[in-house]
């Protein structure tokens, strides 16, 4: 795929995210401004999306809005997801027992991508969305996924790497973080204490299904997690073990 094709894909995504942010019909000028592209370029993309049934036009005021086609396409795709659909009920049970937000994630390059988020019902909670991208070194899921590596591979990943501070609590010294990850692996779960989001604590554990390594985290505000971290870790490890066994059943 050429650079121009990548840019075109990014612009299509930007257009849909502009509608998500505005939550109202947008004119061609509004869309071009929101995406930061020339009006002529925006018109070409919009024309294609309209012709394919992803957008429809309004006469007064002259504007555009997405149809349900994208929703139907993504819903059909998600219904056949190899992990999320089958794991979600188990993640929901973990949310009910831990009373905190539960996240399923997978490594994507040098980052973590959230595949599913089951938010706590508490009014004060950790909030996130599927598709969110988080750093490997500062997120509990990232630590868990790094912890799934052999020690030699783990050290190789850190070799020559600069670890940016996400918060004031982020561990940015590679040796200190390697020690933290190795100690956590022996304990059976991985922790963050405000390292990715201020005042949010989390525990995570990894497991393998169908030759893929995934991780689940339980995350919540420090004032609750500090007292319940051991309990959440116990529930988390049991859930990951249960999920792994379920995927072994043919």
From TrEMBL:
Annotated ranges, domain IclR-ED: 69-249
The HTH iclR-type domain, residue ranges: 6-75
Superkingdom of the source species: Bacteria
Keywords: DNA-binding, Transcription, Transcription regulation
UniProt cross-references to InterPro entries, sorted A to Z: GAF-like_dom_sf (IPR029016), HTH_MetabolicPath_Reg (IPR050707), Tscrpt_reg_IclR_C (IPR014757), Tscrpt_reg_IclR_N (IPR005471), WH-like_DNA-bd_sf (IPR036388), WH_DNA-bd_sf (IPR036390)
Name of the protein in its database record: IclR family transcriptional regulator
């Amino acid at each position: 795929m050429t650079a121009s094709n990548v840019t075109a894909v990014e612009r299509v995504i930007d257009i849909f995210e502009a509608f998500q942010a505005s939550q109202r019909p947008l004119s061609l000028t509004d869309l071009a401004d929101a995406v930061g592209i020339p009006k002529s370029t925006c018109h070409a993309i919009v024309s294609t999306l309209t012709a394919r049934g992803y957008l429809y036009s309004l006469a007064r005021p002259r504007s555009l809005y997405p149809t349900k086609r994208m929703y139907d396409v993504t819903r059909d795709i998600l219904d056949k997801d190899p992990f999320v659909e089958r794991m979600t009920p188990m993640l929901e049970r973990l949310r009910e027992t831990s009373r905190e937000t539960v996240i399923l994630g997978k490594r994507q390059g040098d980052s973590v991508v959230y595949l599913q988020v089951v938010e706590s019902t508490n009014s004060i909670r950790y909030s996130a969305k599927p598709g969110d991208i988080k750093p490997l070194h500062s997120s509990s899921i990232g630590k868990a996924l790094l912890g799934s590596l052999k020690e030699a591979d783990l050290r190789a990943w850190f070799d020559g790497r600069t670890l940016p501070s996400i918060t004031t609590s982020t561990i940015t010294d590679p040796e200190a973080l390697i020690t933290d990850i190795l100690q956590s692996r022996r304990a059976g779960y991985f922790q963050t204490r405000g390292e990715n989001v201020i005042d949010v604590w989390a525990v995570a554990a990894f497991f393998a299904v169908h030759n893929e390594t995934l991780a689940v985290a339980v995350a919540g505000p420090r004032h609750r997690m500090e007292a319940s971290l051991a309990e959440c870790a116990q529930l988390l490890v049991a859930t990951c073990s249960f999920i792994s066994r379920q995927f072994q059943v043919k």
